[in-house]
Design brief:
The chain is mainly α. It folds into two domains: about 10-125; about 130-180, no CATH class. Helices cover about 50% and strands about 5% of the residues. It has a two-stranded antiparallel ribbon. This is DUF6114 domain-containing protein. Keywords: Membrane, Transmembrane, Transmembrane helix. Pfam families: DUF6114 (PF19609).
Amino acid sequence: MSPESTGQNEHYIRVLRRRFRAWRGHRPFWAGLFTMVGGIPIAYFPYASMTLGNMTLAMSTTAGAGSLIIGVLLITLGLTMWYHSIVRVFAGVAAILLALISIPVANIGGFVVGFAFALVGGALSISWAPGKPESADGTPLAEHPDEERSEGGLHAAAVPRQQGSGYDLAVDTDGGGHRAG
């Protein structure tokens, strides 16, 4: 191998990690993960039994089917957040509502563990917003000051100010030479 070949020397784990990081960055990953983790105890605890020596403790309730439905729906909503991020607000609201419904139905929301995870996952899904694309000159939009991103977008920052013309082009909002404000 020659030292000029760049892609062949890279380890496959590093490539997979970079691909996963890129995949994770375009969707509400943590919201979906928290929602799915919240659905597991809500669905599991009503059907679980614990053995202490010769004594078996069963935590099953009459609402076991409701708990299973709520848990499966939360897991489905978590997967929806990952693979269809366009409906993230609906999935977040539905996850919060299912978490609230799980308190009376599913053993106090999976002993508060599932309730808390589903509530946080739904809130993260509602608050997640996709990243902004970079501007044409290669500088990310987040690096521009807020005053440059006014009604005209970044156009005002790109127009040079002319000295002595009676008005500034950077403040010219309607294109007719009139000052704003």
